Amino acid sequence: MQESGEMYLETILRLSKEQPLVRAIDVSEYMNFSKPSVSRAMGILKKDGFITVDSGTGAITLTEAGRARASKIFERHQVLTQILEYIGVSPEAAEEDACKVEHYISDETFGAIRRCAETVIKDADR
Predict the structure, then answer these.
(1) CA distances from 88 to 26, 28, 85 (A)
(2) Can you give the pTM of this predicted structure?
(3) What are phi and psi of 61, to 5 degrees?
(4) Between the chain's N and C termini, which has fewer beta carbons within 10 Å?
(5) Domain regions of the chain by residue span
């Protein structure tokens, strides 16, 4: 899956934590993307089995595969943002940089960063 697909899944996950119903217009507004771009992306994600879209309400729901992928990206985003802020990066830059890095690092590298973050940040909290 490309970075853009992961970004859409992460956005749907984030929105679903904040509101009971997620529609394409919500995704469009959150990401500041055009409605046609979001519509195309939703079609691809639906075809690939990552989301379902209710024909009556337009509600977008993550499938099990979609939720797993979105959760993985969301966790990466949170951990990377946390570690970047811990080392002195501003919250704004940490958020932006984490968003870029989360899509490209290997599972091995992320696992090492997560373990380091857990150790370093726990020690700092003592």
Answers:
(1) 33, 32, 5
(2) 0.83
(3) -125, 135
(4) C
(5) 3-67, 71-125
